[in-house]
Design brief:
7-stranded parallel β-sheet; 4-stranded mixed β-sheet; binds nicotinamide-adenine-dinucleotide; binds magnesium ion
């Protein structure tokens, strides 16, 4: 029986992690759950999975939740804020910590889990985008094991297996998002509801918008750089609209291995929990009679410049990746609130990066210094527009 602590249990990845656990009750036990503010969903999860620790990051919602839980007469520790998240991330009993908070809010608890030498199932890509060097060095020093959950990185992880030294190239696939066929002119007028219609995946709002701008693929290039210790020039992205091949690895002898499956996040989530073993999943089988062609195209960085911005940031250095991420989080949030247009996401991130002067990143304090700077500049740009 493995004990699982889920950071971000009320989100898309968090709920699907609980689906996997529900289907494998004799293999997994939930020991901690955390949410930001969605206490209605959290309460249902608590009743069903009976964890030892529950964390509500938001203080007002925590107070409300704590009094709700008082009527539920089981011993359960209810915590709040950053300290609460760190408790769930480092809980002695947890065999695996599922890191599924969205954005840089996931960095500190994930850092704490790695520092504690935990096995971390990592969905929160922003952790490696903003602190990839710090986290991967710490993981080595503390014997922490990071298992990727992002479908592309799970695919690469499965293809590489024990052959890391023979890898020559990583090929990340991308669906191309809902605007793959739109012209640059048409992209200026797409709406929020258009952008939220992802053709193949049902995900949280932030990653859905990132998929529409292709920033998601850019963040995943940076994530791959750190997870697999591979140079940016050896990571390629290809549009593969069918989302059947989840990514590929080319080896020095020219052999290419790919991982295929239906686009269902429960597959990489389940693998991150059962690794190195596998277990039966109830649905999600590929039917080859329905897929008679798999296609690939080069991403058009003219129409989708965010991907190039991420490659440039990766080549430029760690602080540029942090600035890219911070500006993007602000821009996506403004777009989700209907305050800026779709193509302004790129404009904002590009302008923040233009004004960024690199600094050395040696600690989480350095990371948050650049993150704060980039957020402030992005918000200033919004006010001045
Ligand atoms: P989501 O928005 O659906 O859920 C986010 C979770 O984080 C929620 O439980 C929320 O309560 C919590 N959270 C948000 N802000 C917080 C804060 N400030 N403090 C504490 N908790 C907070 O997001 P998601 O789609 O599940 O994505 C989670 C992560 O996984 C992201 O980094 C995303 O890029 C990555 N990812 C998601 C998918 C997917 O299919 N959804 C696929 C690959 C990777
Ligand atoms: Mg992905």
């Amino acid at each position: 029986m493995k004990n699982i602590s889920i950071l971000g249990s009320t989100g898309s990845i968090g709920c699907q992690t609980l689906d996997v656990i529900r289907n494998n009750r004799d293999e997994f036990n939930v020991c901690a759950l955390t949410a930001n503010s969605n206490i209605d969903i959290l309460y249902k999860q608590v009743l069903e999975f009976d964890p030892d620790i529950v964390v509500v990051a938001d203080y007002e919602k925590y107070k409300e939740f704590k009094s709700d839980v008082a009527s539920y007469n089981k011993h359960i520790e209810v915590l709040h804020g950053e300290d609460g998240l760190n408790c769930a991330a480092t809980y002695e009993k947890a065999d695996i910590v599922m890191s599924a908070i969205v954005g840089i809010a996931g960095l500190k608890p994930t850092y704490s889990a790695v520092e504690k030498g935990k096995t971390v199932a990592l969905a929160n890509k922003e952790t490696l985008v903003t602190a990839g060097r710090i986290i991967t060095n710490m993981a080595k020093g503390k014997n922490a094991f990071i298992i990727p959950v992002d479908s592309e990185h799970s695919a690469i992880f499965q293809c590489i297996d024990r052959n890391r030294e023979f890898v020559s190239k990583i090929i990340l696939t991308a669906s191309g998002g809902p605007f793959r066929k739109k012209t640059a002119e048409e992209l200026k007028n797409v709406t929020l509801s258009d952008a939220l219609q992802h053709p193949n995946w049902n995900m949280g709002k932030k990653v859905t918008i990132d998929s529409a701008t292709l920033m998601n693929k850019g963040l995943e290039v940076i994530e791959a750089r750190w997870l697999f210790d591979i140079a940016a020039q050896n990571i390629q992205a290809y549009i593969h609209p069918e989302s059947i091949i989840h990514s590929m690895v080319e080896f020095i002898d020219g052999a290419v291995l790919a991982q295929l499956g239906v686009p269902d996040m429960k597959i990489p989530i389940q693998y991150s929990l059962t690794y190195p073993e596998r277990t039966v999943a109830s649905d999600s089988k590929l039917d080859f009679s329905k897929h008679n062609s798999l296609s690939f195209e080069k991403p058009d960085t003219g129409r989708f410049p965010c991907l190039k911005l991420a490659y440039d940031a990766l080549l430029d250095g760690d602080s540029s990746c942090i600035a890219l991420n911070g500006a993007n989080e602000v821009a996506v949030s403004l777009f989700l609130q209907g305050k800026i247009g779709f193509t302004e996401i790129y404009d904002m991130v590009a302008k923040v990066l233009e004004g960024h002067s690199r600094i050395n990143i040696n600690s989480l304090d350095d990371v948050f210094q650049v993150d704060n700077w980039s957020r402030n500049v992005a918000l200033e740009l919004y006010k001045k527009r």
